[in-house]
């Protein structure tokens, strides 16, 4: 047996072991902190040196399999190396990413965040979130984890970039769900509160209804008794009403018979009046011809020898006879209108207006007239009589705008309802005072003297009679020296085009 070591030997061996343990711990710390480039390991085959360069291939294979982006940066943020995952985040070929400045993929605000993360990482490690810009312009949120990495012969930064897109989407979805849940809870809370209030209200109403039911029942019995009395009164009133209706019916029958008799008398009187007007007009022609003829003979035989005043009297006689002849012709025409049979058919008003203007062309020659003709509809009317209406209205407009330069005459359609078509003729002529408007359509009713504007006073009366025979209306609006508008209506045949 060998002798046990002595106490000094044990102390020396223990000191040696402690020294070796301290050296091992320092080596491990140096490796962890990146202060060594390699490690010498004794093995069965002798000593082997493991450097970072020797471990590059396994490290690269590991990095390429990562689902996060991995890259190494210099102090200036230049990318020395990155994996395909980070290149796909940027939608940029790997060759264009390596060697690029990481800041070029960041906005101004995110560049400031990166600068702070890099500065912190040189003293240990740092983490933060930024958004990188992809090649298609989209923004990708990422979380960066930075730490120091010693590689021969550089001290670099190791960066792990985690795509936060799905995480952000989950967070947004969670926020939406939370908001929706809160909304539903609030709605449900409101509904429950409303239901509770409604239930309380129903209970109160039910209690009140129970109290009111007895009162209603008492009132109902009283109402039944009152209704029975009212029904008896109604029966009495109905009997009285039936008696009065019988009396009124008999009176209406008598009134209808009286109206029929009056209508017959009126029709006979109208026919007699028309016949009288025709006869008077016709019989007046003979003495009027005598007056005109003898006045003309007197002018031819004694005209040169007559004094100026006598010749003036003779001219007045001749002029008055001519005016009387025009009045007789107008009166005859007015009388014939009541006897003429209506021959109505479809008639284009626009064409009728053009024919009337051609008939009035001698009065238009030399005049400065601005015509404004709107689209006019078709109507159902007697063309001969309706032409007299249009000619009379246009002739009046031409006559009463004679002092105007330029004169403005407008004709158009203004349908007031689906039952009738309204036609109007508007001018900027002499106009009239509306308080005398009801006289415009009367026979021989004139608001101007012959010295101002010539006329017979039959034209507008003829217009009213013709339109009345067609079942229409006539009316006018005007203002002195500001013009007038004459309207007539006919039963609708075609809607106006405004």
Supply database-style keywords.
single chain, 498 residues, alpha+beta, Beta-Lactamase, Heat Shock Protein 90, 5-stranded mixed beta sheet, 11 helices, 14 strands, elongated
How far do the termini sit from each other? Answer: 138 Å
Q: Number of helical segments?
A: 11
CATH C-level class of the domain at 344-491 is: Alpha Beta
User: What strand line-up does the widest sheet have?
Assistant: 4-3-7-6-5
Largest sheet, in brief, is: 5 strands, antiparallel
Give the assembly state of these chains.
Answer: single chain
The percent range for helix content is 55-70%
Proper CATH architecture of the domain at 344-491: 2-Layer Sandwich
Strand content: 15-25%
Shape: elongated
Structural class: alpha+beta
Q: Unreliable stretches, pLDDT < 50, 5 or more residues?
A: 27-55
Describe the overall structure.
The protein has 498 residues and is an alpha+beta fold. Among the domains are: 60-163, 2-Layer Sandwich (Beta-Lactamase); 344-491, Histidine kinase-like ATPase, C-terminal domain (Heat Shock Protein 90). It is 55% helix and 19% strand. It has helices at residues 7-33, 56-64, 84-90, 94-97, 108-121, 165-302, 308-339, 349-359, 361-364, 383-400, 459-469, and strands at 38-43, 46-51, 69-73, 79-82, 125-133, 139-151, 154-163, 345-348, 369-373, 378-381, 407-413, 420-427, 474-479, 483-491. A five-stranded antiparallel sheet has the order 4-3-7-6-5. The protein has a five-stranded mixed sheet with strand order 9-11-12-14-13. Strands 1-2 form a two-stranded antiparallel sheet. β5 and β6 form a beta hairpin. The longest helix has 138 residues, at 165-302. The radius of gyration is 59 Å and the shape is elongated. Residues 27-55 have low confidence and may be disordered.
């Amino acid at each position: 047996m060998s002798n046990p070591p002595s106490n000094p030997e044990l102390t020396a061996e223990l000191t040696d072991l402690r020294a070796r343990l301290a050296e091992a711990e320092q080596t491990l710390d140096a490796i962890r902190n990146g202060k060594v480039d390699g490690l010498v390991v004794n093995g069965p085959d002798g000593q082997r040196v493991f450097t970072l360069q020797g471990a590059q291939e396994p490290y690269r294979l590991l990095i390429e399999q990562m689902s996060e982006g991995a890259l190494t940066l210099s102090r200036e943020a230049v990318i020395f190396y990155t994996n395909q995952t980070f290149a796909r985040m940027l939608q940029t070929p790997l060759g264009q990413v390596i060697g690029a400045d990481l800041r070029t993929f960041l906005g101004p605000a995110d560049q400031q965040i990166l600068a702070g993360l890099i500065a912190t990482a040189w003293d240990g490690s740092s983490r933060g979130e930024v958004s990188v810009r992809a090649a298609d312009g989209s923004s990708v949120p990422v979380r960066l984890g930075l730490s120091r990495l010693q590689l021969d012969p550089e001290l670099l930064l190791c960066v792990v970039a985690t795509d936060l897109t799905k995480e952000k989407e989950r967070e947004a979805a969670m926020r939406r769900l939370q908001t929706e849940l809160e909304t539903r809870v609030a709605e449900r809370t409101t509904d429950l509160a409303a239901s509770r209030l409604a239930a309380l209200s129903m209970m109160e109403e039910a209690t009140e209804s129970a109290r009111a039911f007895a009162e209603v029942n008492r009132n109902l019995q009283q109402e039944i008794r009152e209704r029975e009395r009212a029904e008896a009164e109604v029966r009495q009133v109905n009997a009285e009403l039936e008696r009065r209706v019988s009396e009124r019916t008999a009176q209406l029958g008598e009134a209808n018979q009286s109206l029929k008799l009056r209508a017959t008398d009126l029709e006979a009187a109208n026919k007699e009046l028309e016949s009288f007007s025709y006869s008077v007009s016709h019989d007046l022609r003979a003495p009027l011809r005598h007056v005109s003829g003898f006045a003309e003979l007197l002018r031819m035989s004694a005209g040169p020898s007559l004094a100026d005043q006598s010749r003036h009297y003779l001219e007045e006689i001749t002029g008055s006879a001519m005016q009387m002849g025009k009045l007789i012709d107008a009166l005859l025409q007015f009388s014939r209108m009541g006897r003429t049979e209506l021959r109505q058919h479809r008639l284009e008003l626009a064409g009728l207006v053009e024919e009337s203007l051609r008939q009035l062309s001698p009065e238009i020659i030399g005049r400065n007239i601005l015509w404004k003709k709107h689209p006019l509809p078709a109507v159902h009317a007697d063309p001969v009589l309706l032409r007299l209406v249009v000619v009379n209205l246009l002739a009046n407009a031409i006559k009463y705008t004679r002092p105007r330069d330029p004169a403005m005459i407008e004709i158009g359609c203004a349908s007031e309802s689906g039952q009738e078509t309204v036609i109007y003729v508007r001018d900027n002529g002499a106009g009239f005072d509306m308080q005398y408007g009801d006289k415009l359509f009367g026979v021989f009713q004139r608001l101007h003297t012959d010295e101002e504007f010539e006329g017979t006073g039959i034209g507008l009366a003829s217009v009213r009679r013709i339109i009345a025979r067609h079942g229409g209306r006539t009316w006018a609006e005007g203002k002195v020296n500001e013009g007038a508008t004459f309207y007539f209506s006919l039963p609708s045949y075609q809607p106006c085009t405004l």
